[in-house]
Write a structure and sequence with these properties.
Blueprint (H helix, E strand, L loop, with lengths): L3 E4 L9 H5 L8 E6 L11 H10 L4 E6 L3 H10 L4 E5 L6 H10 L3 E6 L6 H4 L7 E5 L15 H13 L5 E5 L7 H6 L4 E4 L1 H4 L4 H17 L4
Parallel strand pairs: 1-8, 2-3, 3-4, 4-5, 5-6, 6-7, 7-8
Helix pairs in contact: 3-4
The structure holds D-xylitol-5-phosphate and zinc ion.
Length: about 220
């Protein structure tokens, strides 16, 4: 199957989300960054905004929670109808219980790792999740450069997913653009968040198609 391209609306116009949704129709999912100015040093929006997005979005929402105390808050996003809810491993006391709660509420469950968080401790619980998000920048802001060493985790996660035949999507987020997506796909990522790379383009749909084609090319030349 084709690579998934999920534009991040962190780079959209915050008073015109509904209008901007219409400029990214070729997206597979819409990536929604929730930040609380506590887990990360930036603030976006919370559940009421995501509930409104859910009501007007033409695509399923891929919610990325960069918030503390996630065990308390994450399930509300699943109950709001989000297709996928990804929380940070660093912010949860009980990731497995939370994954089960998200799935019970009807969402796919995702777990995210900051660049400095090792993958090892999470490999044995990967089967409890539908998605692993390997952050390729420090979470908090769009427009940063990809941190190369994070791709080692992509390679290791891909090996584990294939070896155990897990149905886990392997997502990367941060600094993904037309110059590196092919190489990142070749290392085993299958789901790509792109904020500035999509929203800076004059024809965003064309850019989404281009990113997907490049990622598909990377999958053909996989080197993981
Ligand atoms: C960063 C967010 C990303 C961000 C990516 O913490 O999680 O989703 O929007 O933006 P780019 O693609 O511009 O690096
Ligand atoms: Zn994100």
């Amino acid at each position: 199957m084709s690579a998934r391209i999920n534009p991040s609306i962190l780079s959209a116009d915050f008073v015109n989300f509904e209008r901007d949704f219409k400029t990214i129709e070729h997206a597979d999912y819409i990536h929604v960054d929730v930040m609380d100015n506590h887990f990360v040093p930036n603030l976006t929006f919370g559940l009421p905004m995501v509930q409104r997005m859910q009501a007007v979005t033409p695509k399923p929402l891929d919610v990325h929670l960069m918030i503390s105390n996630v065990d308390r808050w994450a399930t509300g996003y699943a109950e709001a109808g989000a297709f996928s809810v990804t929380f940070h491993a660093e912010a949860s006391d009980n990731p497995v219980a939370l994954a089960r709660s998200l799935r019970a509420a009807g969402a796919r469950a995702g777990i995210a790792l900051k660049p400095g968080t090792a993958l090892d401790g999470y490999l044995e619980i990967l089967h409890e999740f539908d998605q692993l998000l390997v952050m390729t920048v420090e979470p908090g802001f769009g427009g940063q450069a990809l941190i190369e060493h994070t791709l080692e985790k992509v390679v290791s996660a891909r090996r584990k997913i294939d070896a155990d035949n897990l149905k886990v999507w392997l997502q990367v987020d941060g600094g993904i653009d037309e110059t590196n997506i092919e190489a990142v796909a070749a290392k085993g990522a299958d789901t790509f968040v792109a904020g500035s790379a999509v929203f800076k383009a004059t024809d965003r749909n064309l850019q989404i198609d281009k990113l997907r084609d490049l990622a598909d090319l990377g999958h053909k030349h996989a080197n993981h």
